[in-house]
Every structure is written in structure tokens, then in C-alpha cells.
Amino acid sequence: MTSPRFRGEAGERLEQAAGGRGRVVVADDDVFVREGVSSLLQRSGFEVVGQACDAAQLLDLVGEHRPDLAVIDIRMPPTHRTEGLVAAHQIRAEFSDIGILLLSAHVEVKDAVELLASCDRVGYLLKSRVTDVNEFIDALDRIRKGGSVVDPSLVKELLGARRRNDPLAALSEREREVLALIAEGRSNSGIARALWVTETTVQKHVQHILTKLRLPPSSDDHRRVLAVLAWLRAR
């Protein structure tokens, strides 16, 4: 496992970042990854209040500091299987206001879905995303503000699966593409740029998706997230 790499231009900009983005605990058994992520967060305006090398230490730090966010490696000692994920579930059960970002070296669909289905303040990213500073920090900001973030690789695998009673069966291929981009956290304008269509066209696709997934109009800003997570729950 390699430590995060910071590119020059982004690094210079981050050095100038001010504090106030939130308090964070970082948990990873690899000291280079742990230190690298912590350094990146501190330079980006976050306050790292603790670092953990295993799940037990993570839970102790969360209980002591009550951070705004916990960045957690799914696989940690002693078995290096799902200790981090189990700890994340415990954190969510005891401290529902703490945002959780799961990191993994591999796409682990089955293990991640249940926590992602909780909708609020949760994310899942491959560790390779950490090397993209802007994307990683943006994901943490969205989680801290109450949103959800799903790695594009996980979305691709989920959207490609075939099963009975698929709630996405009614969606067209283009609507599936739009839904995948929604899951990545893209705005309508961002989706329009990615698909080379107008923003008005994207708005129509989004409305069709919400209608087909039986998510009626409301004042809730999270309907776009629910459109993705309704399908995740079906797994």
C-alpha cells in the first residue's frame, strides 16, 4: 500500500487553506497512509484530533473527541477484513451526527451497501481517490454538510449488476448514466458537461428518474441521494 501523493499546484494552494472545516479522526493501520491523509487534511483546513491504527483505538478516540468526521479504512487489524466497517457501524449507532468516510483499496460492494443506505453523512471512496486532492476534500465537505458520496467504481459495479425486481429496470440507459453521475455527487451542470448535453436535458432525465423510482416531489433536498440509495437498499 502506497502513501498518498500530493501534486505541486494543489499542494501550494492547500498550504494556504484556513481552519474551520471540521474536526477529524483518521483510522488506518498503514502509518504512511494515516500520516499522509492527516497531513493533507490539516493543510486543507481540517483539525485532525486523533489517529488510530486499529478499530479499538478508533472507537476510543471517537468517544473521547466526538469529531465531526471519521475517515476509516475498511480493513484493519487483527484479521484485516471488516474491522473498520464494523467500527463505522458502531459509530453510526452511537453518534449519528458524526460523518463517516470509508476508504478501501478494493471495491467491496456487499460490505459497504448497508452503511451507505443510511443516507446521511456517509461516503465510500477507493484509496486511489485520495491522490486527487480536490476530489477527496470535496467529498469530505459534502459528507460534513449532510450529504453522501459513492465512489464511481462502486457505482459502476452496482449499476452493472442484474437481478430480479431491479428497481432500475424501468430506467433507460441514459437515465442510468445520469443516476451514476448523481451518485458521484455531480450537479446538473456537472452531469451536462460529462454527457455533452444541455442542463435542461439533464433536468428532464433527473425528473424521469425520480418519477420512475417513485420519489414524489417534496422540499427534501436529498431526493437525488435517495434515488441512488433506494436501489442500494434493494441489495
Which SSEs are present, and which pair or pack?
Layout: H1 8-15, E1 23-27, H2 31-43, E2 47-52, H3 55-65, E3 69-73, H4 83-94, E4 99-104, H5 109-116, E5 122-126, H6 133-144, E6 148-150, H7 152-160, H8 173-183, H9 188-195, H10 199-212, H11 223-234
Parallel strand pairs: 1-2, 1-3, 3-4, 4-5, 5-6
Task: Describe the fold and architecture.
- By secondary structure, the protein is an alpha/beta fold.
- Helices cover 50% and strands 13% of the residues.
- It has helices at residues 8-15, 31-43, 55-65, 83-94, 109-116, 133-144, 152-160, 173-183, 188-195, 199-212, 223-234; strands at 23-27, 47-52, 69-73, 99-104, 122-126, 148-150.
- α2 links the parallel β1 and β2 (47-52).
Features:
235 residues; 11 helices; single chain; elongated
Give the neighbour order of strands across the main sheet. Answer: 2-1-3-4-5-6
Shape field: elongated
Query: Portion of residues in helices?
Result: 40-55%
Mean pLDDT, nearest integer? 80
Percent strand = 5-15%
In the predicted model, the low-confidence regions spanning at least 5 consecutive residues are 1-19
Please tell me how large the radius of gyration is: 18 Å
Q: SS-based structural class?
A: alpha/beta
| Main sheet attributes: strand count, strand direction, barrel closure | 6 strands, parallel
N- and C-termini, Cα separation: 30 Å
Give the topology string: H per helix, E per strand: HEHEHEHEHEHEHHHHH
How many strand elements?
6
Number of helices: 11
